[in-house]
Amino acid sequence: MRNHLCKVLFTICFTIIAGCNSNDFYYLEFKNVNDGWKKNESLKFNFFPKNSQSKLKVLIRNDKAYPFSNIYLISKIKFDEKLITDTLNINFEDEGIDIFKTNSLSVKNYSIILKDNINFGQDSVSVELKHAIRPANSSAAIESLKGIISVGLLAE
């Protein structure tokens, strides 16, 4: 019940904030991660771009069960027969990355720029995200990453 309430409160807060600039974004979708984000589980987002120049942001929600201060994400962006692959090291302790820094909830919300000023053309865009977290001094990826509640994609 508490988890559901947190999700509802986050959605309401994010909608209010985003509603102030409703002309700035045209795609927003969240994927819930239940019982840990599996190492081979890719989160896929598909949309049609509305603007010639766009900015993509990854939105991450985690709770106190998340054991790290950062996350590595492998991203694949497909459009117009192009593929852009990148690995991001996102440090959650960076100033300004938590969009609700002053909240007292156990849920943290992060907004990270994936790509800025990218021209998608007119075809559909596919974005795939996968985590690549490994414990210190290990080459094996964590089988199930606990503490991530949901991952979203915002196009503006």
Protein architecture, described:
It contains 1 helix and 10 strands; from the N terminus they run H-E-E-E-E-E-E-E-E-E-E. The chain has 156 residues and is mainly beta. It has one domain: Jelly Rolls. The chain has a 4-stranded antiparallel beta sheet with strand order 1-10-4-7, with no helix packed on it. Strands 3-8-5-6 form a 4-stranded antiparallel beta sheet, with no helix packed on it. A two-stranded antiparallel sheet has the order 2-9. The protein starts with a helix and ends with a strand. 20% of the residues are buried. Residues 15-22 have low confidence and may be disordered.
Bin the helical content: 10-25%
Give the SSE order as H and E letters.
HEEEEEEEEEE
Count of discrete alpha- or pi-helical segments spanning 4 or more residues:
1
Report the major sheet.
Answer: 4 strands, antiparallel
Give the class-level CATH name.
Mainly Beta
Shape: globular
Class per helix and strand makeup: mainly beta
Count of individual beta strands: 10
Poorly predicted parts: 15-22
Radius of gyration: 16 Å
The portion of residues forming beta strands comes to 35-45%
The assigned CATH architecture is Sandwich
CATH topology name: Jelly Rolls
Amino- and carboxy-terminal Cα gap? 32 Å
- Write down the overall mean pLDDT: 82
**Strands ordered across the widest β-sheet:** 1-10-4-7
